[in-house]
Amino acid sequence: MTQHEDSFPIQGFDYIQFFVGNARQAAQFYRTLGFRPIAYAGLETGSRDRVSYVCRQGEVTLVFTGALSPDSPIADHVKAHGDGVHDVALRVPDAEDAYNMAIEHGAVSVAEPKVYEDEYGKVVKAEIATYGETIHTLISRQDYSGLFFPGFVPLNAAGHFTPVEGDRVTDPNVSGFGVQSIDHVVGNVELGMMNEWVSFYERIMGFTELRHFSDEEISTEYSALMSKVVWDGEGKIKLPINEPAEGLKKSQIEEYLEYYGSPGVQHIALNVSDIVSAVDEMSKLGLQFLRIPATYYDDAIERVPEIKTQVKDLARTGILVDKDEEGYLLQIFTKPVQDRPTVFFELIERHGSRGFGAGNFKALFESIEREQAERGNL
Q1: CA distances from 236 to 92, 185, 354 (A)
Q2: Cβ-contact 277, 146 below 8 angstroms
Q3: Mean per-residue pLDDT, 55-62
C-alpha cells in the first residue's frame, strides 16, 4: 500500500456543484451535454433557502444550486462570479478521518463532519477551502443507497421535468452522449500563486506533480500561461492549476480572473467513448465549440497515424489530436457556457495517452485569442 493510500485515500470525484442564477434553467441547458436531471431539492421538499437539481451522465454528477432569497450566500456567490463552480466534491472512505487529516496538515475548515440520514442510509460529509471561494466537500456514502443525498427526491416525484416522449436525454435507459467520467478539473489562480496551491495539494492530500508546462510551452505571439498538474498517483483525480504569465496582451487566465472576480474552476474535462458522435449530438442541441483553421489537419495523419480513418470527421467537427509515448488522444473545447467568459468544458477521448494535448496548445490558444478579440478582451 502506498503512502498516499495510507494517508489520504480518495475514491474519485463525487460531484461538482455550480452556484447559478436559475437552477431550473441551468439543468435544462445541460441537456445539451447529454446530462439527465434525476433528483431535486427545493421548497416542495422542505428546503427553504435554496433549490438544487442533480444531473447525471455516466459516472459524472453535476449539481446546479440557486438561491431562494437575495441575502443568501449563494446569491452573493452568483453576484460576484456569475454562474460558476463552488464545490468539487471528492469521495473518500471516511469523511471524518479525511477532514481531520486535512486540518492537521493546514487546510482551512468550511464545515466540520456531519452525518445526514434518511430511509436509504447515511452520508457523512465535511468541507475544506481551496483556491478562491471554491471548496472541496469530502464525502463518504458507502452506507447510502439513495439516488443522491438525503433531502433530495426523484424529479418525477417532485413534479418537475416531466419526460417528453422520444426525448433521448430524459429516457432512463439512455446514458446521454457518451460521457463516462471526469478526466480532470482545471483551476485558474493569480500570478505567483500556482506553486502555493500545488504545495497545498501535496501537503493536504499527498498528491504529486504529474506535469509542468512552462510559459514557453503554452504561449502564442500575444499571451502565455503556466500550468502544473497534480494528481493522486492513480489517475482518479487530476487537477491542473494555471496562472498567467507575462505577454503582450491579456491572456485567457487574466480574462477569466477579471470576469470571475477571483481564482476558480476554469474548465471540466469529460471522458467520452466516441468524441465525434458526442460533438455531433451536442452541436445539434446548440452547444458551441471552439474552432481551429482547417490547415491544422494538413499534417494530422503524419503526427498521429492512428487517426487515418477518422481524419475527415475530426476536421469536420474541429476535434484536436495529439500523441505521446503512451498513445494518442482526441479533444475539443466548448465556448464558455454562461454569460461571462469563464467556465467551459473539454471533451476528451483517450487511447493510451495520459497527456493533456501539449501539441495542441498553440492552435487552441490562438483559437481562444480569436474569441477574446471578438469580446474585446485580448
Answers
A1: 12, 11, 12
A2: no
A3: 96
pLDDT in tens, 203-213: 999 999 987 76
Q: What is the percent of the chain with per-residue pLDDT over 90, rounded to a whole number? A: 70
In this prediction the pTM is: 0.90
Instruction: Select from 300, 225, 220 the least CA-distant residue to 255.
Output: 225
Question: Do the Cβ atoms of 126 and 12 come closer than 8 Å?
Answer: no
Give the pLDDT score at 251.
82
Torsion of CA 145, 149, 152, 156, to 10 degrees: -50
The answer to whether residues 244 and 191 touch, using CB atoms and an 8 Å cutoff, is yes
* CA atoms within 13 Å, Cβ hemisphere of 80: 17
Helix (H, G, I), strand (E, B) or coil at 204: helix
Among residues 130, 32, 52, 57, the alpha carbon closest in space to that of 89 is found at: 130
Helices (H), the chain: 3-7, 23-29, 73-81, 95-104, 155-158, 194-205, 252-260, 275-284, 300-303, 311-317, 361-375
Instruction: Using the Cα atoms of residue 138, residue 346, residue 211 and residue 253 in order, give the sign of their dihedral.
Output: negative
d(CA 185, CA 241): 9
Task: Name the 3-class secondary structure at 257.
Answer: helix
Cα separation, 230 vs 208, whole angstroms: 5
Q: What is the pLDDT of residues 69-122, one digit of tens each?
A: 999 999 999 999 999 999 999 999 999 999 999 999 999 999 999 999 999 999
Q: What is the DSSP letter of 352?
A: B
The b/e string for 277-315 (b: 16+ C-beta within 10 A; e otherwise) is ebbebbeeeebebbebeeebbeebeeebeebeebeeebe
Whole-angstrom Cα distance, residue 38 to residue 357?
A: 33
The pLDDT mean for the chain works out to: 88
pLDDT given for residue 298 in this prediction: 84
pLDDT band at 170 (very low <50, low <70, confident <90, very high): very low
Dig out the grid coordinates for 258 from the structure: 477579471
pLDDT at 260: 98
| Start-to-end Cα distance in the chain | 49
Q: Distances from the Cα of 197 to the Cαs of 14, 106, 189, 208, in angstroms? A: 21, 12, 8, 12
Higher pLDDT, 176 or 25: 25
